[in-house]
Protein: PIH1 domain containing 2
Amino acid sequence: MGSSGCPEDVLQHVSQFWSMLDDLSESDPAAYQELIGKQMERGADMLSAPPEPVCCLQTEILEPNQGLLYINICGWKRVPAPQDPSKPIPLCENNKKTLIQVISSTVTAQPLKPEYQLQVNTDAAGSPCSLELTVELPRVSSISECQLSISKDDILLQVEDVYYLLLELPQNVNEESAAATFNKKKRRLTLKVPVL
Structure:
Protein backbone atom coordinates (compact mmCIF):
# COMPACT_ATOMS: atom_id res chain seq x y z
CA MET A 1 0.00 0.00 0.00
CA GLY A 2 2.34 2.73 -1.23
CA SER A 3 1.42 6.36 -0.85
CA SER A 4 2.86 9.55 -2.21
CA GLY A 5 1.64 11.42 0.89
CA CYS A 6 -0.56 13.88 -1.01
CA PRO A 7 -3.88 14.79 0.70
CA GLU A 8 -6.00 12.80 -1.78
CA ASP A 9 -3.99 9.60 -1.15
CA VAL A 10 -4.16 10.06 2.62
CA LEU A 11 -7.93 10.59 2.50
CA GLN A 12 -8.31 7.48 0.34
CA HIS A 13 -6.30 5.37 2.84
CA VAL A 14 -8.28 6.73 5.79
CA SER A 15 -11.53 5.97 3.98
CA GLN A 16 -10.34 2.40 3.26
CA PHE A 17 -9.35 1.97 6.90
CA TRP A 18 -12.78 3.11 8.14
CA SER A 19 -14.46 0.76 5.67
CA MET A 20 -12.40 -2.16 7.01
CA LEU A 21 -13.37 -1.23 10.59
CA ASP A 22 -17.05 -0.99 9.62
CA ASP A 23 -16.87 -4.41 7.92
CA LEU A 24 -15.18 -5.91 10.99
CA SER A 25 -17.77 -4.44 13.37
CA GLU A 26 -20.59 -6.00 11.31
CA SER A 27 -19.00 -9.37 10.57
CA ASP A 28 -17.29 -10.02 13.96
CA PRO A 29 -18.39 -7.63 16.73
CA ALA A 30 -16.27 -9.44 19.37
CA ALA A 31 -13.07 -9.08 17.30
CA TYR A 32 -13.95 -5.44 16.66
CA GLN A 33 -14.41 -4.79 20.41
CA GLU A 34 -11.10 -6.55 21.15
CA LEU A 35 -9.24 -4.48 18.52
CA ILE A 36 -10.70 -1.20 19.78
CA GLY A 37 -9.96 -2.19 23.41
CA LYS A 38 -6.32 -2.95 22.59
CA GLN A 39 -5.91 0.32 20.70
CA MET A 40 -7.42 2.31 23.58
CA GLU A 41 -5.12 0.53 26.04
CA ARG A 42 -2.05 1.26 23.88
CA GLY A 43 -3.08 4.91 23.62
CA ALA A 44 -3.53 5.17 27.40
CA ASP A 45 -0.12 3.54 27.96
CA MET A 46 1.49 5.95 25.53
CA LEU A 47 -0.01 8.99 27.26
CA SER A 48 0.76 7.87 30.81
CA ALA A 49 4.25 6.47 30.15
CA PRO A 50 7.08 8.47 31.72
CA PRO A 51 9.93 9.93 29.65
CA GLU A 52 12.44 7.31 28.50
CA PRO A 53 16.21 7.95 28.84
CA VAL A 54 18.01 8.23 25.51
CA CYS A 55 21.50 9.41 26.44
CA CYS A 56 23.45 11.48 28.94
CA LEU A 57 25.77 14.38 28.05
CA GLN A 58 28.66 15.51 30.22
CA THR A 59 29.90 19.09 30.10
CA GLU A 60 31.89 21.42 32.29
CA ILE A 61 30.61 24.29 34.44
CA LEU A 62 33.05 27.19 34.52
CA GLU A 63 31.17 29.60 36.78
CA PRO A 64 30.39 30.34 39.58
CA ASN A 65 32.06 27.11 40.75
CA GLN A 66 33.95 24.85 38.39
CA GLY A 67 32.61 21.30 38.10
CA LEU A 68 30.90 18.72 35.93
CA LEU A 69 27.31 18.94 34.71
CA TYR A 70 25.37 15.92 33.46
CA ILE A 71 22.40 16.49 31.14
CA ASN A 72 19.94 13.62 30.69
CA ILE A 73 18.29 13.52 27.27
CA CYS A 74 14.93 11.75 27.30
CA GLY A 75 12.33 10.88 24.71
CA TRP A 76 8.67 11.19 25.63
CA LYS A 77 5.79 9.98 23.49
CA ARG A 78 3.61 12.82 24.81
CA VAL A 79 5.83 15.47 23.24
CA PRO A 80 5.04 15.50 19.52
CA ALA A 81 7.88 15.65 17.06
CA PRO A 82 8.25 19.06 15.40
CA GLN A 83 6.58 19.32 11.99
CA ASP A 84 9.69 20.96 10.65
CA PRO A 85 13.26 21.04 12.12
CA SER A 86 13.12 24.85 12.08
CA LYS A 87 9.94 24.92 14.22
CA PRO A 88 10.12 24.69 18.02
CA ILE A 89 8.74 21.81 20.07
CA PRO A 90 5.45 22.81 21.76
CA LEU A 91 5.72 23.51 25.48
CA CYS A 92 2.11 22.62 26.27
CA GLU A 93 -0.27 19.85 25.31
CA ASN A 94 -3.56 21.33 24.06
CA ASN A 95 -2.99 24.36 26.35
CA LYS A 96 -3.70 22.16 29.40
CA LYS A 97 -0.53 20.81 30.92
CA THR A 98 3.06 21.96 30.68
CA LEU A 99 5.15 19.26 29.01
CA ILE A 100 8.54 20.94 29.20
CA GLN A 101 9.67 22.96 32.18
CA VAL A 102 11.22 26.28 31.20
CA ILE A 103 13.97 27.28 33.62
CA SER A 104 14.62 30.98 34.08
CA SER A 105 18.06 32.20 33.10
CA THR A 106 17.79 35.35 35.22
CA VAL A 107 19.49 33.76 38.23
CA THR A 108 22.49 35.90 39.07
CA ALA A 109 25.77 34.16 39.74
CA GLN A 110 27.92 35.01 42.72
CA PRO A 111 31.09 36.98 41.91
CA LEU A 112 34.22 34.87 41.50
CA LYS A 113 37.29 35.00 43.71
CA PRO A 114 40.08 35.90 41.28
CA GLU A 115 43.46 34.21 41.28
CA TYR A 116 46.00 36.26 43.19
CA GLN A 117 49.47 36.20 44.69
CA LEU A 118 50.49 38.16 47.80
CA GLN A 119 54.20 38.64 48.28
CA VAL A 120 56.01 40.17 51.29
CA ASN A 121 59.16 42.03 50.18
CA THR A 122 62.01 42.40 52.68
CA ASP A 123 64.87 44.86 53.03
CA ALA A 124 68.59 43.94 53.26
CA ALA A 125 68.19 43.15 56.97
CA GLY A 126 65.34 40.69 56.21
CA SER A 127 62.60 42.88 57.71
CA PRO A 128 59.30 43.26 55.81
CA CYS A 129 59.32 46.56 53.89
CA SER A 130 56.40 46.24 51.43
CA LEU A 131 53.60 44.03 50.20
CA GLU A 132 52.93 43.32 46.54
CA LEU A 133 49.58 41.92 45.45
CA THR A 134 49.11 40.60 41.92
CA VAL A 135 45.54 39.77 40.85
CA GLU A 136 44.58 38.07 37.57
CA LEU A 137 41.43 39.71 36.13
CA PRO A 138 40.77 38.13 32.70
CA ARG A 139 37.23 39.59 32.54
CA VAL A 140 38.31 43.17 33.19
CA SER A 141 39.34 45.45 30.33
CA SER A 142 39.85 48.70 32.27
CA ILE A 143 40.90 49.71 35.79
CA SER A 144 37.75 51.88 35.91
CA GLU A 145 35.71 48.66 36.36
CA CYS A 146 37.53 47.92 39.63
CA GLN A 147 36.69 49.21 43.10
CA LEU A 148 39.75 48.97 45.33
CA SER A 149 39.73 49.76 49.06
CA ILE A 150 42.78 49.52 51.30
CA SER A 151 43.00 49.82 55.06
CA LYS A 152 46.01 49.22 57.28
CA ASP A 153 45.14 45.52 57.68
CA ASP A 154 43.06 44.43 54.67
CA ILE A 155 42.39 44.92 50.96
CA LEU A 156 39.01 44.73 49.23
CA LEU A 157 38.81 44.41 45.42
CA GLN A 158 35.42 44.30 43.68
CA VAL A 159 34.32 44.21 40.06
CA GLU A 160 30.53 44.38 40.07
CA ASP A 161 28.93 40.94 39.48
CA VAL A 162 32.28 39.54 38.31
CA TYR A 163 34.97 39.44 41.05
CA TYR A 164 35.17 39.81 44.82
CA LEU A 165 38.39 39.53 46.84
CA LEU A 166 38.81 40.42 50.53
CA LEU A 167 42.29 39.77 51.94
CA GLU A 168 43.52 40.07 55.51
CA LEU A 169 47.08 41.38 55.29
CA PRO A 170 49.92 39.65 57.17
CA GLN A 171 51.44 43.04 58.10
CA ASN A 172 49.93 46.47 58.76
CA VAL A 173 50.50 48.79 55.81
CA ASN A 174 50.58 52.51 55.03
CA GLU A 175 47.43 52.71 52.88
CA GLU A 176 48.16 56.37 52.01
CA SER A 177 51.27 55.32 50.06
CA ALA A 178 49.69 52.48 48.08
CA ALA A 179 50.12 52.42 44.29
CA ALA A 180 48.11 50.27 41.87
CA THR A 181 48.69 49.61 38.17
CA PHE A 182 46.62 47.65 35.66
CA ASN A 183 48.23 45.89 32.70
CA LYS A 184 45.55 45.91 29.98
CA LYS A 185 47.35 43.37 27.80
CA LYS A 186 47.76 40.79 30.60
CA ARG A 187 44.61 41.94 32.45
CA ARG A 188 46.52 41.95 35.68
CA LEU A 189 46.26 44.34 38.63
CA THR A 190 49.41 44.96 40.68
CA LEU A 191 49.27 46.76 44.02
CA LYS A 192 52.34 47.83 45.97
CA VAL A 193 52.09 49.20 49.48
CA PRO A 194 54.77 49.87 52.15
CA VAL A 195 54.63 48.07 55.49
CA LEU A 196 54.36 50.18 58.68
